[in-house]
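Morning!

This is the sequence you dropped in the shared folder:
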Amino acid sequence: EMNVPGINVSPCTLRVDVLYDSTSRLLKIKSWVTALDTFTHANAHLRYAIAENHKYFVWYSLDSLQHIVRKMLPNYNGIAFNINPGQTFADSQSYTLSSGWVDKNCYIVVFVQADDYTGKPVFRCTKAGLFPTYVFGDGTGDAVVDVADVVFLINYLYRGGGAPNPYGRGDCNRDCQIDVADVIYLINYLYRAGPAPLKGCD
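The structure's back. Tokens below.
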């Protein structure tokens, strides 16, 4: 439960898509905030943090820092926005990681924060690594892409079944939404020599 007067659940959803090129070290992030309820917060902000874990640093009995924030995008102020129920606010950021950062230890935290309340509560937050750890198109999470994943998506879309976790598992065509096009994409891949599933938006 959120510690915000009159608000017990988050008034928004948050979706994030992360693309990282380990050769150029260029990081691209896209995010979508959708209002589920009246978004009455004129000082709502979308913020991005690039963090790194297990940073070598000798201090007393420690030999590393568990988590450090390397960079806030676009800066600590974030991006102010205000949307009505059903509307979506979209944003994108890019940043080239420093050569001194261990990219395999880096991750992204994206959050929606209400600056017009004491304590600046976070309405929604999500975390994503730079390197995906799941099989693209594997909605069931069993590390194999097969007909069971087609059935899983159909159940999710039309029979009230659970959503893929993370969401990107089911976003086979990478259009940042799961719909019948992803089912067709997966069938084409499995039975008609179509292209392999892509990294979806989480």
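Headline: Confidence is low (pLDDT under 50) at residues 1-6.

More detail when I'm at my desk.
O.
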